[in-house]
Every structure is written in C-alpha cells, then in structure tokens.
Amino acid sequence: MFAVIRTGGKQYRVSPNDIIEIEKVAGNPGDIVELSEVLLLGGEGAATTGSPTVSGAMVAAEVVEQKRGEKIIVFKKKRRQGYRRTKGHRQELTALRITEILTDGKKPSKAAAKPIPAKTESAEKPAAKADAAPAEKAAPAKKAAPAKKAPAKKAAEDKSGGDKAPAKKAAAKKAPAKKAPAKKTAAKKAPAKKAPAKKS
Length: 200
Description:
The protein has two helices and ten strands, in the order E-E-E-E-E-E-E-E-E-E-H-H.
C-alpha cells in the first residue's frame, strides 16, 4: 500500500518503512508524527483520490533526525551600481520513517515504531568495531617505526665516531661569540670620531 501526502508545500509518495526528508516539523527523534493531508491512497485494488484529501486517512511517521540541508548560495547583483550581495542558506529538514498508512480514522500505534530503531543500533555497533580495529592496527605500526630508526642513528654515530660530533657543536657555538664583540667595538669607535669633528 502507498499514499501521496502533502507537507511543507510539497507532495511525497510514501510506503511503510520509507525514509523521507521533509520541511521541518516539530518533534524529537523517536516521536510519532501524524501527517493528515493524504491526497491519494493506492494498493492492490483501485486507487482512492481525495477532493482535496482522502477523508479518514492518515500517515504515521517516526522522527529519525532533525537536520539541515546542503548550503545554497544566494547571489544578487545590480550591474553598473557596485551592488553585490552573497548569502548562504541551509534549509531545516526533518528525516521521517513512515510507520503506518491508516484509513477509516484509525489512530497510530506506537508499537510499530520501536523495532526498527533497535536494528539500526545493532547495525551501527559492528561499524564502530570495524572503525576501531584499523585504528588499533595503525597504532602499533607507528610505534614500531621509531624503534627501527633509533638503532640506525646509533649505528651512524658509531661509524662516524662519537668525538667528532661534539667538536662541531662547540665550534658552532664559539663563532657567534667572536662576531658580537667586533660589532660592539665598532659602535664605540663611531661616537669618538664624531665628537672631535664637531669641535673643529
């Protein structure tokens, strides 16, 4: 059985267990929402059309998620006027899972909404385990790599000789010390030369 419903200025063809995204309606995840604007009912027999809606028909749905759609860029421009405006818009949406299509004024049963969320949770748990497993494998690989590099560095130091490396470091430290006093003496001599020039 299927139904054509109208909500948010749009029409949707729905069947039980379908998941649709509609304009935002009030409700928290897990709540049951009643969509009473049923335009058409179809199934095994002839379709029933409404004028404008089918009397006594209703579609019950469970709120899966409240979210926002993809960003739409709104750009306005007036040529030769120096007017340009850019804005972004994200439409607020509600994801619904259709639980029942009701006729003859029946009310939705809350029991119909409970089994499927339990299945989705069980489906998420294996996915979480699968994500955790590669992370665990990657961590030991990273730890092993630095351990291999450390012996290689030690071997290089042994070949080159441990005494040569500290000597180079000491020489590098002494070089800046020699340059600094030379600059200081030049700075002291400059004022001394200028002073006698002013007296004469």
